[in-house]
Write a structure and sequence with these properties.
Helices cover about 45% and strands about 20% of the residues. By secondary structure, the protein is an alpha/beta fold. Among the domains are: about 10-220, Spore Coat Polysaccharide Biosynthesis Protein SpsA, Chain A, CATH 3.90.550.10; about 240-330, no CATH class; about 535-620, no CATH class. The chain is built from 25 helices and 20 strands.
Length: about 675
């Protein structure tokens, strides 16, 4: 009798009390278009109906292992690995859903890339009932993934991976002592012996719910992640790393809103130290070094906006010079990548003459002699000394505070979804102008939704935007006046302007100019303060005062004021259920100049509520222009600009509107 050959792939899943989503997970594997696999399921002492569900499956590809006692995920996966026959080990979790082409795509990649031992994919997040959330996208290349692993991140989604079994055995598989960060630990160890990669397509629905590990054991994951990164950094540098200094660096990553200058300095020093090692490594591909160099400069520039003191700034300049010397020896031209990104988005035109712009060295020129410098990889069409300079300082100081990627919430995503009419899928492959991009809270959502984005801002907030979003493809950013952008008319599928128009000199003129950038059939999405915008007497008085001060002073003043008043805000919120306290709180909020989001965004938690209060208190006290408009006035402005299909409602910060430009008949 002819013996059957072992399957090429062993799909490995551990499950404990997973009855709620188990059928969907199992069925998604059994429905794969690639069929040469076995499906090893390790049942880890479930107390619900998990075993009964599994026993109903008669598919011969399923190999069911039942632990006598609960052993935890790492030991359960190792038990499965011991019996696995496949050359490739594909991970799967009991609450997720693999798309039908997943195994086929990953096997094909590994077969053609022998240098890669771990291949993950992008994923769509779904909630407990299967509603589609945001897309998770991580870098594709080994060097960048390894860099991210060093800084306490996990850039490979565990249930999306396929691992070469020989590589997993080489590093002794999963380490139970590193739970619940056993996957991060495994990637760190595997990165020393094989290549890591991600496919740039979605092949998994990743379920987030209240019982998921990332929700229930977040603090323990962070602690283990710190230990994992320490071991990886020491393996790369061949030097021992101070745990105390690493903890400070870690604090700057996970809690930037409460970190201090010393925390940011330790993180910056670690990036500089590791950057020298990575960029000097002759084994790293030149193209990956170019990309990494851009990331390192961007991250250091971002960190040093948070660090106070001339000594630190001098050290920063010294570090940058040292890294530039290394880069020059490698013949890396950072601006070439910026130029390529810009070309992928749109052709620039001189805002004065509307003539094509040509890049020469570190600047753009038109044939009439206009000159526009490229500073920090960002084309600049205006001076930084303008009425929006307070916003620029604000967003550079608080550059990650409101990003969903930082908060772990979906506040920005939900707001953008509402503004677009409830569907982010319309953004895919659309050319989008984000006018007034700030630090990038909406830019990152646009890019995650596969839009091609030109981000523009009058202030040097573009530097924060670049720091937060330059790792995305299909992205370019410019510092320019939205009333006179260096682009031709009617170029964009979507023009979006959120939280900006009320701060421009003439809202009606701004709306008219924005309409001009929309192509026929394209969409304009805007919002504006309404006459109901909350303003206390103390805010009005302080705004008059702060508009006469420097941005540096206004930030420090607002931080001190929030620090002083915040304990009262917290106390009154905590005891608000008492009638007297509730009345007292209502009176206090009408007096306090501090912006309080306890009622609107309680889900942020104490630390982020405090950080948002710091940011938006400064925002509301330092805007040079603050206009109000009614729903009817915004609608009239859109009609006067020739827009059609106008929808205007009171929502969000006041008035929200969207309208289309008619297609000429």
């Amino acid at each position: 009798m002819k013996q059957m050959s072992p399957p090429k792939v062993s799909v490995l899943m551990a499950v404990k009390d997973g009855e709620k989503y188990l059928r969907e997970a199992v069925d998604s594997i059994l429905s794969q278009t690639y069929t040469d696999f076995e499906f090893i399921i390790v049942e880890d002492g479930s107390q619900d109906g998990t075993v009964q569900i599994l026993n109903k499956y008669l598919d011969p590809r399923i190999v069911l292992i039942k632990n006598e006692t609960n052993m935890g995920i790492a030991r359960s996966l190792n038990n499965g690995l011991e019996v696995a026959q496949g050359e490739y080990i594909a991970r799967m979790d009991a609450d997720d859903i693999s798309l039908p082409e997943r195994l086929a795509a990953q096997v094909a990649f590994l077969d053609s890339h022998p240098e890669v031992g771990v291949i993950g994919t992008y994923a769509w997040v779904i909630d407990s009932v299967g509603n589609l959330g945001h897309k998770i996208k991580f870098p594709k290349d080994h060097t960048i993934l390894r860099w991210r692993l060093c800084f306490f991140e996990n850039p490979i989604i565990h249930p999306t991976v396929i691992i070469r079994k020989t590589k997993a055995l080489l590093v002794n598989c999963y380490d139970p002592d590193t739970e619940p960060s056993e996957d991060h630990n495994l990637w760190c160890r595997l990165s020393n012996v094989t290549g890591l990669a991600n496919l740039s397509d979605v092949y998994l629905y990743l379920r987030k719910h209240e019982n998921s590990i990332s929700s229930t054991k977040a603090n323990e994951q962070q602690k283990r992640g710190l230990e994992n990164s320490k071991q990886l950094i020491e393996a790369i540098t061949n030097e021992e790393i101070s745990l105390a200094k690493l903890e400070r660096a870690c604090h700057a990553v996970w809690s930037p809103h409460v970190a201090n200058s010393q925390d940011f300095y330790q993180l910056a020093f670690l990036k500089y130290r590791l950057g020298k090692v990575f960029l000097s490594d002759t084994k790293i591909d030149k193209l990956e070094k170019e990309t990494l160099a851009m990331i390192i400069f961007s991250e250091l520039r971002q960190l040093f906006t948070q660090i106070q003191g001339d000594t630190y700034q001098k050290e920063y300049q010294h570090w940058i010079q040292n890294l530039q010397d290394i880069i020059c020896r490698l013949n890396i031209e950072g601006t070439a990548q910026i130029e390529k990104q810009m070309e992928n988005i749109i052709s620039l035109k001189c805002p004065k003459h509307q003539l094509p712009l040509f890049k020469e060295g570190d600047s753009y020129h038109c044939n009439q002699g206009c000159f526009y410098p490229i500073i920090g990889n960002i084309p600049r069409f205006v001076s930084t000394d303008n009425y929006a300079k307070a916003f620029g300082s604000q967003w550079k100081f608080y550059q990650k505070t409101q990003l969903d990627s930082n908060t772990g919430k979906s506040i920005s995503r939900e707001r953008l979804t509402r503004l677009l009419g409830g569907n982010l899928n319309i953004l895919s492959n659309q050319l989008v102008l984000e006018a007034g991009c700030g630090a990038g809270r909406f830019t990152e959502i646009l890019l995650q939704s596969d839009a091609r984005v030109l981000a523009a801002d009058l202030s040097d907030a573009v530097e924060a935007n670049y720091n937060n979003c330059s790792h995305f493809g299909n992205y370019a950013v410019i510092q320019a006046d939205i009333l006179s952008l260096p682009v031709a008319q009617e170029q964009f599928d979507l023009v979006i302007c959120i939280g900006v128009i009320q701060h421009t000199p003439n809202p009606e003129k701004t709306i008219d100019v924005l309409c001009g950038y929309v192509k026929p059939g394209g969409l304009l999405v805007i919002d504006h303060y309404s006459y109901g915008y909350p303003s206390t007497t103390s805010r009005k008085l302080l705004r008059k005062f702060l508009l006469r001060t420097s941005p540096t002073f206004s930030i420090r003043f607002c931080r001190f004021m929030v620090w002083l008043l915040w304990p009262t805000h917290r106390f009154l919120w905590k005891y608000r259920k008492h009638t007297f306290i509730r009345k007292l709180r209502n009176r206090f909020l009408k007096w306090s100049p501090v912006v309080d989001y306890h009622d609107a965004y309680a889900q942020l938690g104490p630390d982020l509520l405090y950080a948002w209060a710091m940011l938006d208190t400064h925002d509301t006290l330092t805007d040079y222009y603050k206009h109000m408009r009614s729903k009817e006035e915004i609608e009239a402005a859109l009609r006067a600009s020739g827009m059609d299909n106008i929808e205007v409602v009171y929502a969000g910060n006041g008035v929200e509107a969207r309208a289309r430009k008619p297609i000429a008949k």
